[in-house]
Design brief:
The strands form 2 sheets. A two-stranded antiparallel ribbon has the order 1-2. Strands 3-4 form a two-stranded antiparallel sheet. The two termini are about 65 Å apart. Among the domains are: about 90 residues, no CATH class; about 80 residues, no CATH class. It is mainly alpha-helical. It is built from 14 helices and 4 strands. Helix 3 packs across helix 7. The longest helix is centred in the N-terminal third of the chain and has 51 residues. Bound molecules: heme C (2 copies). One heme C binds next to helix 11, helix 12, helix 13 and helix 14.
């Protein structure tokens, strides 16, 4: 029997006793026996009182005085650690509830009635992942009624893309707890990240559950040094990745060509045509992959760090950019604004002018200011931009700032 059940049993017993006493009183009132009034009831005489009875009463008084004398200092001594333990176990239970909310069906904490499947998009360890998303066509061409949903006008068909979901096992380095609560309550409209809070009118979580999720996220944060190592390795991986994109495209072109060459003589004209289309597509994909690799080869470290850390908000289309998926619209020019403002055409030099501005821009990107406070010349923080001092080294942030100032 755990402590909780013992408490419940004690409460039930106390309730039963109270009910019993009340019932007894009511029943005895009903019997209507007239008791002798207390003042007419003769009490014990002095001889009877001043013997064992008195000693017993005094003995009990002593016992109770001792208990009180010991219990008060003991309570005084134990209370602070009891309070700390209570806070710890309060936090522990909050993290446990958050873990259930975060889980997907492959995780041990999964509960089909409560889990919100954050892990499906953000990874089981919160290491980041991807989310399916459907892009709606934007071209003016698609305003024409007969182009809507018309398979002959492929750019007017909704397009399925894979939207990068950021790592959340480092999110407390980028945002304060309050800012994370805001993101969870309101989501990121226009991206796959849903709004979860009742506050937003779209979600189901009250402020306690939102707090549970933040406590859970805090519990899965990886070490500061590891976060910085991951951000640094990502630059090399990005460069190598471009080479892999080319190799993969070469492989698919080779196999498409082979399929066409080895097509059985009995193949129908339409089968041959579709094999030919695969070769043409793979050729175009290889050209795109090679152009991408050449572009990446010429990028500065600052430019790559920008792509890895900033572009998902500051460049429209970057979050789902895939160099070889030719159906996905190409991203807008780097840094031209999306969720975050445009940083191009010297706009950061207007917000952060001169040499002092360079330092100001560094400070903004590294630590920022709390929501509603001023930055730069006329910037007002909304608390929605993450900050990177805990993710990137000083040299890396300087490289990004230099890159931005020349966009
Ligand atoms: C359908 C996929 C999906 C689900 C489910 C989902 N997210 Fe997200 N989340 C995203 C995407 C995508 C982004 C980034 C959006 C963007 O590009 O601005 C994001 C952004 C975030 C961010 C901001 C991180 C940053 O650095 O900008 C946090 C924190 C977050 N999600 C936590 C959660 C939690 C907690 C849950 C579960 C309650 C959850 N997400 C469920 C897809 C998802
Ligand atoms: C989660 C989205 C997001 C990411 C990621 C992000 N930003 Fe921002 N950024 C914003 C928003 C939103 C603003 C507007 C200011 C605000 O709302 O507080 C902003 C503002 C800025 C500004 C000020 C622009 C101006 O003219 O006022 C600069 C500079 C900037 N970001 C640089 C960066 C850099 C560098 C990175 C990557 C290291 C980055 N941002 C990553 C969302 C983002």
């Amino acid at each position: 029997m755990n402590f909780r059940t013992v408490l419940i049993v004690i409460n039930i017993a106390a309730l039963a006793i109270i009910v019993g006493v009340v019932l007894y009183r009511v029943l005895s009132l009903r019997k209507n026996v007239e008791p002798t009034p207390a003042n007419l009831d003769p009490y014990l005489n002095d001889n009877d009182l001043e013997n064992r009875r008195l000693e017993r009463a005094l003995g009990w008084s002593l016992v109770f005085v001792l208990i009180t004398a010991l219990a008060l200092p003991l309570y005084f001594l134990v209370e602070p650690s009891r309070q700390v333990k209570a806070e710890d176990s309060f936090l522990e239970r909050s993290v446990e509830r958050g873990a259930v909310l975060f889980a997907n069906s492959q995780m041990p904490t999964y509960d089909s009635t409560k889990s919100l499947l954050c892990a499906n998009c953000h990874g089981a360890q919160g290491e980041g992942g991807a989310a399916p998303f459907v892009l709606q066509p934007e071209s003016d061409l698609c305003l024409v009624e007969q182009n809507k949903g018309n398979a002959d006008v492929p750019q007017c068909l909704p397009q399925q893309v894979s939207w990068t979901a950021p790592a959340v096992n480092s999110v407390l380095q980028r945002y304060s707890r309050g800012e994370i609560k805001h993101i969870l309550n309101y989501g990121r409209p226009g991206s796959p990240m849903p709004a979860w809070g009742i506050k937003s009118g779209k979600g189901v979580l009250n402020s306690q559950s939102i707090g549970d999720l933040v406590n859970y996220l805090a519990s899965i944060q990886i070490a500061d040094s590891e976060i910085k190592a991951i951000s640094t390795e990502a630059v090399g991986e990005y460069r190598d990745g471009a080479g892999e994109v080319v190799t993969n495209a070469q492989d698919s072109l080779a196999s498409a060509k082979q399929d066409l060459a080895e097509a059985p003589a009995s193949s129908s004209a339409s089968q041959l045509a579709s094999l030919q289309v695969s070769v043409t597509t793979a050729t175009a994909q290889l050209a795109a992959a090679e152009a991408y690799a050449t572009e990446v080869g010429g990028l500065s470290e600052g430019a790559i760090l920008f792509r890895l850390n900033c572009a998902r908000c500051h460049t429209k289309g970057w979050a789902y950019y895939d160099p070889t998926n030719l159906k996905v619209p190409a991203p807008s020019p780097q840094g031209s604004g999306a969720y975050g403002p445009s940083l191009r055409d010297g706009s950061t030099k207007i917000q952060f002018p001169g040499l002092a501005g360079e330092q100001g821009q560094f400070d903004w990107v590294a630590v920022g200011v709390p929501a509603n406070e001023a930055y730069g010349i006329r910037g007002i923080s909304s608390g929605r931009m993450p900050h990177f001092a805990g993710m990137l080294s000083e040299a890396q942030i300087k490289a990004i700032v230099a890159y931005e100032r020349n966009l």
